[in-house]
Give the backbone structure.
Amino acid sequence: MSRLTKSLREAMLETILSHAFDAKQKNAKQQKIIAGEKVYQDIYGSHLIAMESLPKGFLPKSSAFYVAISGQTHTVQCSENRLIGKGHYDKWSDRAKLYVGDERVAIEFQKAVELCNDLESQRKSMSREISPVLESVHTFKKLWEVWPESKSLLEKFEEKPTIAILPAVQVNKLNVALGLPVSEVKESQQ
């Protein structure tokens, strides 16, 4: 019967959270990048030909830049490095654009950001709910009694006792060579 250690509980918690949230969070981040690409096109789209005509290295390339929407600074992620304006990659410098907040592209980006934040908040909340359950038990047997539904995800952590595989030895030959059992050997000598 295996005991649950702190590191084992942490790994189990991460497995449960990954099962519940990884696909959702990956999809939400992808939606945020798609919205970020639209923000990039809104800001730089009409200037791209001129930006690309400048000498190489004249403008920086980055996969992220900063904008302000309704007074809040946001990091906009793109799917790859792109030409951006000087200082737009620096949080403390100028923003690439200041949005009022009612622009379609800004609303779409904010929805994607909120979805990512909501999922992260849900993950943290669920972590706070699962941890006490895992902390309340000390063995896998007790965990399966308390939370049997988790077995399908967590049984991979349980170490099964290894069964010793004994060599294929002919015991009768050993007994004869060693004169075992002792009582039979003494009777045959008399």
